[in-house]
Design a protein that fits this description.
By secondary structure, the protein is mainly α. It contains seven helices and three strands, in the order H-H-H-E-H-H-E-E-H-H. Helix 2 packs across helix 6 and helix 3 packs across helix 6.
Length: about 160
């Protein structure tokens, strides 16, 4: 166990033997992976500043293709109300713009402004630098990178399966 990561067995002695409490419990490798992702999110959050991770995700998705706000809410798996707050903050900072959809008075498409393109590029550099600094401590950094890319593909496939 990494000394920097909290020991999940410290508070609950039954956690040392998961079969004692729940014979169907997932393997400890999966449990550790989930915790690792949670801890990594904090490092990424710091690296992305001044953007929040939700703001970064929105900018990254909109950068891929201009996106209708209603469709974007589905893609990031948040309510439209929660998404509106993130979009309002990005718009107030001049990072995205709302444009009307031809033929739909209520429809809005989101596009990155020049400042949004720059902020996303800066965040990408900072996030990659943070991950690269962590990976220098891994035994096989290219394997970790490949596994994270596969995880990203699986997350996209999982979202698409839920949408259909």
């Amino acid at each position: 166990m990494d000394p920097e990561l909290p020991d999940p067995d410290r508070r609950d002695p039954d956690r040392r033997d998961p079969d004692r409490r729940d014979p169907d419990r997932r393997d400890q490798g999966l449990h550790r992976a989930v915790r690792t992702l949670a801890y990594a999110s904090r490092g990424l959050e710091r690296a992305a500043a001044p953007l929040s991770l939700p703001q970064y995700r929105i900018l990254a998705l909109v950068a891929g293709a201009p996106e209708r706000a209603s469709r974007l809410a589905q893609r990031v798996d948040v309510t439209k109300a929660a998404l509106t707050g993130v979009i309002d903050a990005l718009e107030a900072r001049g990072l995205i713009a709302r444009t009307e959809v031809d033929g739909d008075r209520r429809g809005v498409t989101l596009v990155l402004t020049d400042a949004g393109i720059s902020a996303l590029a800066d965040a990408d550099v900072a996030l990659c630098a943070w991950l690269e600094s962590v990976l220098t401590l891994a035994d096989h950094p290219s394997d970790v990178t490949a596994a994270l890319a596969q995880l990203g593909d699986a997350i996209v496939a999982h979202r698409r399966a839920r949408e259909s």
